[in-house]
Structure formats: C-alpha cells, structure tokens
TrEMBL record:
SUPFAM superfamilies: RNI-like (SSF52047). InterPro entries: FBL15-like, Leu-rich_rpt_Cys-con_subtyp, LRR_dom_sf. This is F-box family protein. PANTHER family: F-BOX DOMAIN-CONTAINING PROTEIN, OS10G0396666 PROTEIN. It comes from Genlisea aurea.
Amino acid sequence: RCPKLEILSLKRSSMPHVALNCPLLHELDLASCHKLSDAAIRAAATSCPLLESLDMSNCSSVSDETLREIAISCGSLHILDASYCPNISLESVRLPMLTVLKLHSCEGITSASMAAVAFSYMLEVLELDNCNLLVSVSLDLPRLKAIRLVHCRKFVDLCLKSSVLSSVSVSNCPSLQRINITSEALKKLVLQKQDSLTILLLQCHCLEEVDLSECGSLTNSVCEVFSTGGGCPVLRSLFLDSCEELTSVNFHSSSLVSLSLSGCRKLTRIELRCPLLEHVSLEDCDHLEVASFSSVGLRSLNLGICPKLNVLRVEAPRMVSLELKGCGVLSEALIYCPLLTSLDASFC
C-alpha cells in the first residue's frame, strides 16, 4: 500500500502471494517468481492501471488469459518481457500499445502467434530467440526498428517490411531458406552460416554492408540482388566467403567498393563491372578459369593464387600493379591499365 510508488521489483522472490495497491506504479518486475500463480500475477498487474513496463519472464504459470486481461486493464503498457513462459501462444491476444516485446524460449510461440504480433502496430523491438516451434515470420509494422531470431531451429521464412528497420539479428537458424526485407533504414545485414538460405530478396535503399559468409546454399542468382536494380543501390561491402555453391559471379554495381569471395572453391567465372571497386579477395578460388574486370577502381590485383585461370580481361584506369605469377594456363589476356607500373607474368 504505497500510493506514490512508481517502480517495484520482486525479481526471484519466493513469495506465493502478492497484492498491490500502488495506483502510480509504472514499472513492475516479477521475473523468476516461480511460486506466484497465474491468477496472482494477473491480479498484481491488472491492479496497476498506469503500468508501462512489465517483466514476467521465467514465470512458467503465465497464460494467454492473463495477457488478455493485462491488455484490457493496462492501456499504457509499452514494454513486455514474457520470455521463458511456456504456456503462452498469444492466441486471441491483442497488445496494440506495445513498443518492446520479448519472447525468448517461449515453447508455445508459433507462426500463428505472429497474427497477434501484427496487431502491435506501435512495436519497435521484437525478440524471438529460441522459439523452437516458430516456422515463419511475416510482419508489416511501420515502427519496427529491431528484430532478433537466434537459435530458432525450425525457422524457414522471414518477411519483414518496415521503413525504419535498422537492426536484423538472425543466426543459428539451420532451416532458414528465404529472407525478404524491405527497409529504408537498414545499413548492415549479417547472415553468416545460414546453410539452408537459398532465396534472398532485399529492398533496402540505405544498405551499405552485407555479410553472407558460409551460406552454403546460395546460388549464382544472389548476384542479381546486389547488382544495379536489385534493391541495394548504395551497397559498399559484400562478403560471400565460403559460399560453396557459387560457380559464376556477375556484378554490375555503381556503388560496390569491396568484394570478398575467399573460399568459393567452385567458382569458375567472375565478371565485375564496378567502377568504384577498390578491394577484391579471391583467396582459395583455385578453380577460377575466366575473370573479367571491366572499368573497376582497383589499384592492384593478385591473380597468381588462381592457378587454373585461362582468360583474363582487365580494364582498370587506376591500376598500378598486376600479379599473374603462377597462372600457368593463361592463354588470353586483355589488359587496359594506363597507369600500370608493375606486371609480373612469370611462368605464364
């Protein structure tokens, strides 16, 4: 009975009952209160009409009924952490006022639960780590800024549309096959080691850096995503290291500055028309046979690490050094590099 109390934490308390008469309370932490019943948690939260932040993580008794009651009684609730609550599925739950929703390791969260999340049109942050029954997420939320999907082992399909989306954390989702993202704020996208990823669709006009290293199922079609007209007009850095299904790479980009293809052992052909390209890595691309660099910004290039290179075309107005030493089967070379001062074609 504290009429002026605004913040209360009962975290890890062992009490079996709680009754609150705190009309000004706006922050309540009930995390890991294992002995509190579902009814007790419901009564405590709904008695605080001005509640803005509620943490009920690791309260295994919490049900969807409690969430429905809270949605009705706490119209100012913006932050909700219901992580590690196995009995919630968000069935028929509507929480339109939320800006932050955390649902880590919630066993009842499935793709159907996303219908409820879609009603949270104010949502800015969504965290779904370790939701092992989640198969797909498709959300069009105008204020969504950040989403986390880590260790979701059955997760297959991600479709996001938000003009302010600036952070996408997706990792250790071994079944993920398809990603479709539309954003005007996303600048960096890291999707390393997504072994099943085959389809990537991006409309991200501010995206500058993408890391798809060790995405072993990506095919040559990924080049269309990052070439002119593909939806990433200001992309500067692209990492495709150890993408072992790539056999032919063709990029036409007016913005790309750095490209890494290290470890792409099946790559046999590369064609780059990137006037700003300054750095390219081809380490362990030992099956490369045809290479074309048309109007690139490279100042130096080492192709001596590509022993099977047969045809080479280089048009680089700024290039001063070209290393071909060891390209023993090179039979055709067209080189237009007016500033070239160093050329080593030993053993060619």
